[in-house]
Write a structure and sequence with these properties.
It is built from 10 helices and 14 strands. By secondary structure, the protein is an alpha/beta fold. Helix 1 runs parallel beside helix 2 (78-92), helix 2 (78-92) runs parallel beside helix 3 (108-119) and helix 3 (108-119) runs parallel beside helix 4. The radius of gyration is 19 Å and the shape is globular. It binds succinic acid.
Length: 334
C-alpha cells in the first residue's frame, strides 16, 4: 500500500503536492479547483495589510524555460482577503484539503497585522512571505535578506496568531541556512523554500526590458537546481518541515525535492504555464507509480536520501519528464 500523505506543522496533506502561492490568486473557486484536481494543499495569493494595485502590465512572461513575473503583490488587503479565505476554507474543508493563507508586509508590525487578520478565516497554515523580489520593504531590502529581519518578521507573525506559520525564504542570499536557522529560532513551524530569483529579460530589437517593472522573479524549470540546493541546505540546518518549491513539474522532480529533504513539494509554474491543473494528478500518479515499482511504501523512505549519500553518482539523472504508467498503481481519482 503506497502512502503519499505527509504532515506539515501538524497538518495532514493527503499527498505532498502544494499549489504554490500566487498561481490562482485567492479566488475560492480556483483554489477548490486545484484541490479537486489533486493538490494535497493549496496556497492563496499573498495579501498585505492594505490593498495593493500591483505593477503595470506586462507583469509576467513565459520565456520558454519558465516564467518571469513582477506582479507587485496585487491584493485587496488583508480584510477583504480574509473574506475570500473564509469562503475558500468552506469549499476546501469537505474535500479534506488544507488551506494555506499567505501574508506579506513592508514593516514588522504589518506582519502582525496581516497574520491577525487572515487568522479570522481559520486557514490551516499561514505562509509568511518575506521574500517577494518585486516590492521594496520599508527598510530597503527583503526581510528574507538578513537573519535579524527575517526573525523579526517571523516573531511578529507568530505573536499575532495561534495558526502554525511557514516562512517563505529567498534564494537571493549568501547563506540561506543562516536565514532558516534564524526563522526557526524565532518560532517558525515550517519553511517554504524557495521564492523566485530576481532576473530580467530584454527585447533585443528595442533594447527595452520586457516587464514594466524591468526586473521580475524567475520560476519554473530554470530554477530547479537552485531550489534543490537551497532545500538541501535548509533541511540540513533546521528540524522543521520544508515545502520544497521551484521547478517541480513531474514525479521525478518531486522525488528529487523529497530526496534533498523536503517534506512537501510546491507546484506553481507547471500549473500556470504547461500542464494546468492536470499537473497535480499526473505528478501524484508518477510519484505513486515510481514508489510502487520499487516497493517503497511511504515518502519517509525517500526523504533526505541526498543527505545520507556519501558521494556523487556517475549516472546522470534521467532527463525523462514523463514516467510510464506502472501496472498496479491505482490512478488518481480526481
Ligand atoms: C509578486 O506578486 O510580485 C510575486 C510574489 C512573490 O514572489 O512573492
Amino acid at each position: 500500500m503506497t502512502d503519499l500523505s505527509v504532515i506539515v506543522a501538524g497538518v495532514r496533506f493527503a499527498n505532498p503536492l502544494v499549489l504554490a502561492s500566487g498561481i490562482w490568486g485567492t479566488t475560492p473557486e480556483l483554489l477548490e479547483r486545484a484541490a479537486r484536481a489533486g493538490a494535497g494543499a493549496v496556497t492563496a495569493k499573498t495579501c498585505t495589510p492594505a490593498p495593493r494595485a500591483g505593477h503595470r502590465n506586462p507583469t509576467a512572461v513565459d520565456w520558454g524555460h519558465g516564467l518571469l513575473n513582477a506582479m507587485g503583490l496585487p491584493n485587496p488587503g488583508a480584510d477583504e482577503e480574509t473574506a475570500l479565505l473564509a469562503e475558500a476554507r468552506r469549499r476546501l474543508a469537505p474535500l479534506g484539503v488544507p488551506l494555506i493563507a499567505s501574508i506579506a508586509a513592508d514593516s514588522v508590525d504589518g506582519f502582525a497585522e496581516a497574520a491577525a487578520a487572515v487568522s479570522r478565516a481559520r486557514p490551516d497554515l499561514i505562509e509568511v512571505n518575506i521574500s517577494c523580489p518585486n516590492v521594496a520593504d520599508s527598510h530597503g531590502e527583503m526581510f528574507a535578506a538578513s537573519p535579524r529581519a527575517a526573525a523579526q518578521a517571523t516573531r511578529a507573525a507568530k505573536g499575532a496568531t495561534a495558526i502554525p506559520c511557514l516562512v517563505k525564504l529567498s534564494p537571493q542570499v549568501y547563506d540561506i541556512a543562516a536565514i532558516a536557522r534564524a526563522v526557526a529560532e524565532a518560532g517558525a513551524d515550517g519553511i517554504t523554500a524557495i521564492n523566485t530569483l530576481a532576473g530580467m529579460l530584454v527585447d533585443a530589437e528595442t533594447g527595452l526590458p520586457v516587464l514594466a517593472n524591468r526586473t521580475g522573479g524567475i520560476s519554473g524549470p530554470a530554477l530547479k537546481p537552485l531550489a534543490l540546493r537551497c532545500v538541501y541546505e535548509v533541511s540540513a540546518a533546521v528540524g522543521i518541515p520544508v515545502i520544497g518549491t521551484g521547478g517541480v513539474a513531474s514525479g521525478l522532480d518531486a522525488i528529487e525535492m523529497l530526496s534533498v529533504g523536503a517534506t512537501a513539494v510546491g507546484v506553481g509554474t507547471a500549473v500556470a504555464v504547461s500542464s494546468g491543473d492536470g499537473a497535480f494528478a499526473r505528478i501524484v500518479d508518477e510519484l505513486g507509480g515510481w514508489m510502487l515499482a520499487r516497493g517503497i511504501e511511504h515518502l519517509d523512505e525517500l526523504r533526505g536520501r541526498a543527505h545520507r549519500a556519501r558521494g556523487g553518482t556517475a549516472v546522470p539523472g534521467t532527463r525523462e519528464t514523463r514516467l510510464p504508467p506502472v501496472p498496479g498503481w491505482r490512478p488518481h481519482e480526481g
